[in-house]
Amino acid sequence: MLWQARQRLAALPETSLVRASGLYVTAPVGGPDQDDYLNQVVEVRTALPPRELLAAIHRIEAELGRERLVRWGPRSIDVDILWYDGFSITEADLEVPHPRMEERRFVLEPLAELAPDLVLPSGRTAKQALSGVGGQTVSRVPDKPSPSQSRGPKLDHSAMHAEIRRLAKEKGAVILAHNYQRSEVQDVADFVGDSLGLSRQAAATTANMTVFCGVHFMAETAAILAPDRPVILPDEEAGCPMADMVDVEGLEELRAEHPGAVVVSYVNTSAAVKAISDICCTSANAVNIIRSVPKGKEIIFTPDRNLGSWAAQKAGRWVIVWPGFCPTHGLIGVDDVEEAKAAHPNAKVVVHPECESDVVALADAVESTSGMIRFCREDDAREYLIGTELGMIYRLEKDVPGKKFYPLSQLTVCPNMKLITLDKVLRALQTEGPVVTVEEEIRVKALLAVQRMVEVGA
Ligand code: 13P
Ligand code: SF4
Fold first, then answer.
1. What is the CATH number of the domain that holds 27?
2. Left, alpha or beta for 131 (phi > 0: left; psi -120 to 50: alpha)?
3. Ligand 1 atom 7 nearest Cα
4. pLDDT classification of 67: cutoffs 50, 70, 90
5. How many structural domains comprise the chain?
6. Distance, CA 151 to ligand 1 centroid (Å)?
7. Which ligand is in closest contact with the Cα of 331?
8. Is 286 a pocket residue for ligand 1 (Cβ < 6 Å)?
9. 288 lies in a domain?
10. In whole angstroms, what is the distance from residue 443 CA to residue 159 CA?
């Protein structure tokens, strides 16, 4: 639920997540009927004024099913504004800075991790305030081990691998996995790749069925390209918040304001949005796709403002960008790049174009996920700082042996990609579901845009 709240916060208009503390477990304060609870402090960059932000937070809490009947009773989710840079207010429903933030260990622990030197209303820094509070038992949840640390014995994994491979053979299934998938899922797949590579595999396969270990728009794209065989997504909940940021209605409105504009949509969109787009692209071929639009034509690019602006600049074109973004890549900040460069001065910085433009500006190379593998293999450096989802580190370590890879941030875990687990892949093969389908009328329209995407090279 904390993940969901965080994602929804990051998906608010003109808002992005800058960074987040680790998770902290706090012993209950409200009596024996309460469970331990989890806390986290996040830093958000937003153009929303405090009251609008508060209203949005209330909506998020309500959507997540917060218990609102008993004001002081147990609450399933509680999101507070602790601090709003340059702003303070003391009103009944909104007090910022939060009046009790200096009294609570469960607030100060994550806050001091995130911003130890933040000067609080008492004049103490968050770190100093933390040393002054006792009482409550608060402990940090250990970070997830990085993919390179997690190569322990995989006994049950290997049994599952064997069963998955046996079933895939028996049923004539091909297993495709995106580069961000868990290492054990990548290891069981027939092909691992970026969105473009996987779309091409899905279009070309002669298998009876495709098991797509990725997110919904990827499986949908496979279903658009190859309607004659079922495409199975092992967890239907694996969506993409960026893809959800653009809808048909909004895009049609924008299109009406720019009649004659060519609509280029990132593959990270729904089939319905693809159906009203002229051409799709992935991060691997966005520059070439933009270049392919006849000069003199206006271009609308959806939904990723970062990929859109970067690709347009590279292509020497001007585009109208939709204001979508990836909440996971948005977690990488300029300070992460500066810190990582200081720690590894000989390393090159390689980032995905979904990163924020100030991060992209500091990079030595901007590549799609498979482009990163090619770049690091051909380049002559020995060490790289990687700005993308953490699954990529495993992939790079495996495909480019002998070189060192460090993530720019430990926070960049796409929760949707990570929904796909080995046991879900196994169940998907056993049950031959859940199948992702696209309504034929939409599929036929979307196919035109997707086919052009598959044809244009990186
Ligand atoms: P790639 O096409 O580079 O694999 O990226 C897909 C994606 O969703 C990145 O967040
Ligand atoms: Fe979507 Fe970002 Fe996850 Fe890629 S990393 S699937 S863009 S949320």
1. 3.30.70.560
2. alpha
3. 195
4. low
5. 3
6. 24
7. 2
8. no
9. no
10. 38
Please choose from 389, 395, 419 the residue to mutate so as to test ligand 2's pocket, defined by most ligand atoms within 8 A of CB.
Answer: 389
Mutate to test the pocket of ligand 2, among 266, 304, 354 (most ligand atoms within 8 A of CB): 354
Q: Alpha-carbon distance 333 to 358, whole Å?
A: 8
250-254: long-range contacts, CB 8 A cutoff, minimum separation 24: 251/276, 251/277, 251/300, 251/302, 251/322, 252/276, 254/300, 254/320, 254/322
Which residue range forms the structural domain that includes residue 370?
329-407
**pTM, full prediction:** 0.70
Report, as residue numbers or ranges, the catalytic residues: 66, 75, 78, 80
Which ligand lies nearest to the CA atom of residue 177 in the structure?
A: 1
**Digit-coded pLDDT (tens) for 387-404:** 999 999 999 999 999 999
| CA–CA dist 156, 176 (Å, integer) | 21
98 and 6 in a common domain: yes
Give the pLDDT confidence of 134-170 residue by residue, as tens digits: 766 788 887 655 444 444 444 478 889 999 999 999 9
The answer on 52 and 134 residing in a single domain is yes
Domain CATH number, residue 174: 3.40.50.10800
Looking at the fold, whether 21 and 128 belong to one and the same domain comes out as yes
Whether residues 101 and 217 fall in one domain = no
Ligand 2 atom 2, closest CA: 326
The rounded Å distance from CA 139 to ligand 1 centre is 34
Rounded Cα distance between 129 and 195, Å, is 47
* pLDDT tens digits along 430-455: 999 999 999 999 999 999 999 999 99
Whether residue 96 has pLDDT greater than 80: yes
Here the tokens at position 352 are: 């995905």
Ligand nearest to the CA of 353: 1
